[in-house]
Amino acid sequence: MGHKTTQIRLTSRPVGEPRDSDFEVGTAELSELIDGQVLLRTIYLSLDPYMRGRMSAAESYAEPVELGAVMIGGTVCEVLESRSPNRAPGDLVLAFTGWQTHAVVPARQTRRLDPAEAPISTALGVLGMPGLTAYAGLLDIGKPEPGQTVAVAAASGPVGSAVGQIAKLKGARAIGIAGGPVKCRALIEEFGFDAAIDHRSPTFRADLEAATPDGIDVYFENVGGPVTEAVVGRLNPFARIPVCGVVSGYNRTETSAGTDRLDLSAVLWQILTRSLSVRGFIVEEFVPTRQADFLRDMAGWVAQGSVRYREDIVDGLERAPEAFRGLLAGRNFGKLLVRVGEDPTRD
């Protein structure tokens, strides 16, 4: 007898902010296992900004999710049944099974996790895709040098908080930009940034200038919009800008003529006259060359307390759409996870 899974499927392309009506909850019968496959039970589902682009049919670096299909996403799962010699029931694994409670996948598409080394949830955060994004984007593109100033937007998130802490480990000054006094205070007290600036403050530009008396040498771009406009004015000659994301525009459905639209010609002029290096990247490009280094270095830093992390966990698969809306609006604090099922290592 086959197993059932509860799924959240994409039923329409969101216009602006995703609505509950863009999704449907349903059940499906899973196929019987064949050789090489495993049956997985989802424990944690990762929610990440890139998912907004995959909901859209607009041309992007990855194919959109088909209408009627399960929303994609990274997961931490428990193996319930296995027809692979490399996986046994009870194994905890990293997978990519999306917004659902169970899945049948090839065992080779999973990576076994050791809960004795780190909490299994970190495989979706500081020791997962967000961590590698911060590590490779900062070190390989940003290339901070001791004494230089690194500024990072969305600094309290899983990528931004890691960027600042890695910058500090490399001897640079870390300037974090975040929304609201609670997040800004945590950047200093919890994550060890040298300065934190609230982009919602009416004195944001003046605060940024005061915090960067020697200018900015690396700007790790996560948001775009007015934050970027303000930071560009503080960049030093030969500054580097790793472009990780532009979350301020992910819900936009048409070109904006408002205050968050950058003057491209003005930005290009700054790139020219200050010899700036701007490089966009998708984290997958670094997996073949940097994954092993990242896992070694970051696991060590986390174990010794040099890199701290926060998690924001909501309970229940049905809350994924609501939590995802909050993510795009900056309402979460830390790596956003949905606890889909019991975590045997915590409960």
From TrEMBL:
<protein>
    <submittedName>
        <fullName>NADPH-dependent curcumin reductase</fullName>
        <ecNumber>1.3.1.-</ecNumber>
    </submittedName>
</protein>
<dbReference type="Pfam" id="PF00107">
    <property type="entry name" value="ADH_zinc_N"/>
</dbReference>
<dbReference type="InterPro" id="IPR036291">
    <property type="entry name" value="NAD(P)-bd_dom_sf"/>
</dbReference>
<feature type="compositionally biased region" description="Polar residues">
    <location>
        <begin position="1"/>
        <end position="10"/>
    </location>
</feature>
<dbReference type="InterPro" id="IPR020843">
    <property type="entry name" value="ER"/>
</dbReference>
<dbReference type="InterPro" id="IPR045010">
    <property type="entry name" value="MDR_fam"/>
</dbReference>
<dbReference type="InterPro" id="IPR041694">
    <property type="entry name" value="ADH_N_2"/>
</dbReference>
<keyword id="KW-0560">Oxidoreductase</keyword>
<feature type="region of interest" description="Disordered">
    <location>
        <begin position="1"/>
        <end position="22"/>
    </location>
</feature>
<dbReference type="GO" id="GO:0016628">
    <property type="term" value="F:oxidoreductase activity, acting on the CH-CH group of donors, NAD or NADP as acceptor"/>
</dbReference>
<feature type="domain" description="Enoyl reductase (ER)">
    <location>
        <begin position="16"/>
        <end position="338"/>
    </location>
</feature>
<dbReference type="Pfam" id="PF16884">
    <property type="entry name" value="ADH_N_2"/>
</dbReference>
<dbReference type="InterPro" id="IPR013149">
    <property type="entry name" value="ADH-like_C"/>
</dbReference>
<dbReference type="InterPro" id="IPR011032">
    <property type="entry name" value="GroES-like_sf"/>
</dbReference>
